[in-house]
Design brief:
Layout: E1 6-7, H1 16-42, H2 47-51, H3 57-64, E2 72-74, E3 96-103, E4 106-113, H4 126-140, E5 144-150, H5 169-180, E6 185-193, H6 196-199, E7 206-210, H7 220-227, H8 233-237, H9 239-244, E8 251-253, H10 256-268, H11 275-278, H12 294-297, H13 308-313, E9 320-324, E10 332-339, E11 342-349, E12 354-355, E13 362-363, E14 367-368, H14 370-386, E15 390-396, E16 398-399, H15 403-407, H16 410-423, E17 428-437, H17 438-443, E18 453-456, E19 461-463, H18 467-474, H19 491-512, H20 514-519, E20 525-526, H21 532-545, H22 559-569, H23 574-577, E21 593-596, E22 601-604, E23 620-621, E24 626-632, E25 635-640, E26 645-650, E27 657-658, E28 663-668
Parallel strand pairs: 4-5, 5-6, 6-7, 7-8, 11-15, 14-16, 15-17, 17-18, 17-19, 18-20
Antiparallel strand pairs: 1-9, 2-3, 3-4, 9-10, 10-11, 12-13, 21-28, 22-24, 22-27, 23-26, 24-25, 26-28
Length: about 675
């Protein structure tokens, strides 16, 4: 059996002005992210490390990985903006670097203490960051390389990193789990290796120590105080002791460069990547559509919709895609494509309004309904059965709510989806394109459901609900049916209520900031939009690198084919669910062209109260330019000019209801 791939995407539907606005918005966010990354990478500066004759952590990583290859970091912004008693400086990246890197053609997880930050000490969240990287290696069976240069716990904050289920000791449990699963671990000890830092490399298959390195349970200063002995840490646990006496290390090497060369030699002895085998003769290829257009695709206003298929088209090889069950649950797009020549499944939220399956008008996108949930469950299980890595592209407001949703048993269907995603063994990767709200975030394989990696973008918004919505919920008893402050309150009380609502909304907006989420480890990595395709290519290769530990079917016998055959044989009811065309009002004068509403909802001529109109009556508009917005459940769908011309008049006022296909305005070509 053979899968038919079709072209997906095309020219962006938005106007040139909207594309420039979107691009400028993303560029500002990218610049801010780049500045923060630079601060983290600089650490506390290289001077002290260089005076000791050692390389900084990033200098070591750059010499460890293959020349010209790209590393992909995780946890870069952990602890961003957080200060700690006992330190005048912050702890960039929690004092540890975790990343994926190519070493001798094999993807490895690299875990490296940042020796510029308090001599590689472990801060609050340092253990959790290390464990998260170890878990990624375990799930993908990737070799782990430890670059150890660790002075132990940052003791003033020991209570936040020593005890508890994910305290520092859990790192060593992960060492053992990796070893038990047969995952290769290679360690280089480059300097301080005290207490927990001394334990971290021991379970590794190969341990190299430089002449400047030592591994000790307790350092010389502590021993001097406890036993009145005059010793150095090198005397206690240097390479002379651990290579030649205790056998806790395997080899001693003169310096950093020699250690890194030896580590590369060990990785080169491992099995090569199986990724090319699983390409089945296909070649990796870039998308046919320009990847750079991802920067222009997402509206600057997070409430406005876009076409997720246009996103997929700029992520997959040749912009070719096979969509499964397109006529079922159209609020969800499921399908497979090649990424870097390798098969990958995609499950994505569709934001555009979709017909109600019972012919009851249009429903807003970005929400999970019964049919879409069932489709996701079946697709997730089929990908797991076939061994196809699955990428979840999230932009979701949540589950459908109300009488119909409860009567249709969405709780049960949602539980089925959660069960599927909780028990899958195929690698799953989650991308928070924009909105990740409520239980929909869980259902679409959010971080609590343990995807191998969860990526966020600079426009990600992760929360139960939006700030304004939560403020309305919190102050609901003081609002009228239109969510305005009840007029029965006196002016001073109204002002107090408004301040409270504004403060609540602002606090939630701050919590939703993707930088804040990355700092809390609520997402694994915050990446630029133009890094999404390269990151997915690397993850696809990692998912197929190690063979023999999970099921990977030949594409001829995929379960997905069964799913498609059964779907093709069902009785289609397209005629019964088609949206009846709205009666078109007569033009006020000959030659005018109607600008139709794309869906049923409320019309708004401006993005926010008090803001300028999107297009003024009497002004010239370009084809594809947004002249109004149609709102359903706080999601805004653009009303676009079908052709260039002069905007003559609107047919309704702000807030008025409009039917799908009804004219919102009149245009003179």
């Amino acid at each position: 059996m053979k899968l038919t791939l079709s072209s997906i995407g095309g020219a962006l539907p938005s106007s040139a002005a909207e594309q420039r606005e979107a691009s400028a918005h993303i560029a500002r966010l990218h610049a801010d992210l780049d500045e923060k990354r630079a601060v983290v990478k600089a650490g506390w500066g290289p001077e002290k490390v260089h005076r000791k004759g050692k390389l900084t952590t990033w200098e070591r990583i750059e010499r460890l990985v293959d020349p010209g290859s790209q590393t992909f970091t995780v946890g870069t912004l952990v602890n961003w903006g957080r200060s700690f008693p006992g330190s005048e400086k912050e702890a960039p990246g929690a004092g540890v670097v975790t990343c994926f890197g190519l070493v001798c053609g094999r993807w490895c997880v690299i875990i490296a203490n940042d020796n510029t930050v308090a001599s590689g000490a472990w801060w609050p969240l340092s253990p959790e960051k290390i464990q998260r990287a170890q878990q990624m290696a375990l799930r993908l069976r990737l070799p782990v390389v430890y670059l150890v240069d660790c002075s132990g716990l940052f003791l003033p904050e020991q209570a936040k990193s020593f005890p508890g289920r994910t305290g520092a000791g859990h790192i060593f449990k992960k060492n053992a789990e990796l070893s038990a699963a047969g995952v290769p671990q290679v360690a280089g000890v480059f300097g301080d290796c005290i207490a927990g830092g001394g334990y971290m490399p021991i379970i590794s298959d190969r341990v190299y120590m430089t002449e400047a390195a030592y591994m000790v349970i307790a350092g010389a200063a502590l021993i001097k105080g406890a036993k009145s002995l005059k010793l150095t840490s090198l005397d206690i646990g240097g390479p002379e002791v651990h290579v030649h006496q205790s056998a806790c290390a395997d080899e001693r090497v003169p310096d950093d460069l020699a250690a890194l060369s030896a580590i590369r030699g060990e990785v080169a002895k491992l099995a090569s990547s199986a990724a090319d085998y699983y390409r089945h003769g296909a070649e990796a290829a870039p998308p046919a559509l320009d990847e750079a257009e991802l920067l222009q695709l997402f509206p600057a206003d997070h409430r406005q919709v876009y076409d997720v298929r246009q996103v997929i088209a700029r992520l997959v090889d040749h912009s070719l895609f096979h969509e499964f069950l397109p006529d079922t649950g159209p609020e969800i797009c499921t399908g497979v494509a090649r990424v870097g020549g390798l098969w990958v499944g995609f499950a994505a939220n569709v934001l555009a309004p979709q017909p109600h399956p019972e012919g009851q008008g249009m429903r807003p996108g970005g929400i999970l309904y019964r049919e879409g949930i069932a489709k996701l469950s079946a697709f997730s299980r089929a990908c797991n059965d076939d061994g196809i890595p699955l990428v979840w592209l999230q932009d979701i407001a949540g589950f459908d709510i109300g009488v119909e949703a409860e009567a249709l048993g969405l709780l049960g269907y949602g539980s089925s989806l959660i069960y599927a995603n909780s028990t899958n063994t195929t690698p799953m990767f989650t991308v928070l394109l924009r909105k990740a709200s409520g239980a929909g975030y869980y259902a679409m394989a959010g971080l609590p459901y343990e995807p191998v990696v969860q990526l966020a973008t600079p426009i990600s918004r992760l929360a139960v609900m939006e700030g304004r919505t939560l403020a309305i919920a919190a102050y609901n008893t003081k609002l009228d049916d239109d969510f305005n402050i009840d007029p029965r309150f006196a002016d001073d009380e109204r002002a107090k209520i408004q301040r409270g609502m504004d403060q609540t909304a602002a606090r939630i907006e701050g919590d939703m900031d993707p930088v804040a989420a990355a700092a809390r480890m609520d997402t694994d990595e915050l990446i630029r939009m133009d890094e999404l395709r390269p990151y997915l290519v690397a993850l696809a290769e990692m998912a197929y690198q190690s063979s023999g530990h999970r099921r990977i079917k030949n594409p001829r016998i995929w379960s997905l084919f069964d799913l498609e055959v059964l779907a093709a044989g069902r009785v289609r009811r397209a005629e019964s669910v088609a949206q009846a065309p709205a009666a078109v009002a007569e033009a006020p004068e000959p030659g005018l062209v109607a600008v139709p509403s794309p869906m049923e909802g409320s019309v708004w001529s401006r993005p926010n109260p008090g803001a300028a109109a999107l297009a003024a009556v009497g002004s010239r508009v370009e084809a594809g330019e947004t002249i109004a917005l149609v709102e359903v459940m706080k999601t805004f769908t653009p009303v676009r000019a079908p052709q260039a011309g002069v905007l003559v008049a609107f047919t309704c006022a702000d807030g008025d209801p409009v039917s799908a296909g009804a004219p919102v305005a009149w245009l003179r070509p």
